[in-house]
Amino acid sequence: MVPLALKSMTSVHFTPTGPPETVLPPEPANALAALAEALAAPVERRRDAVAEVCAHWPKFLDAWAQLGEMARDDTEAYAYFRVGYHRGLDKLRQSGWRGSGYVRWTHETNRGFLRALDGLRSAAGNIGEAEEEARCAEFLYQLDPDFARRSH
Known about the structure:
Layout: H1 4-7, H2 29-39, H3 43-56, H4 61-69, H5 74-94, H6 111-126, H7 130-143
Helix pairs in contact: 2-3, 3-4, 4-5, 4-6, 5-6, 6-7
């Protein structure tokens, strides 16, 4: 008889080249255009413009990551990056990710999630959350072992 705890576990299937890889779907073209326009806004208006994109497309991971980078302080940055990270986990699961496998930077559509996770790592460190900073760093490495060597 198989223990109940084991019955509820999802099996992970490895490919001949290693763990499975998840590629997130692209954002709608109008969301991408709105973010590009917001990022091109004058500096004094840019943060609010990006916040409007997040409000209109709350599942747009790169918009949250960009907003985190524009935060007025470390606590605000932490909050924005955390939203992007959690929405990203939801989107990964909807895309077939089962808690393990690669989510690589080489795929443009994965970059918003990875930026949010990296931003959360940095912001956690900035507010003294060393354990969370370390967990995020380890998770980034597990998702894309080459992430730290890339220029973002």
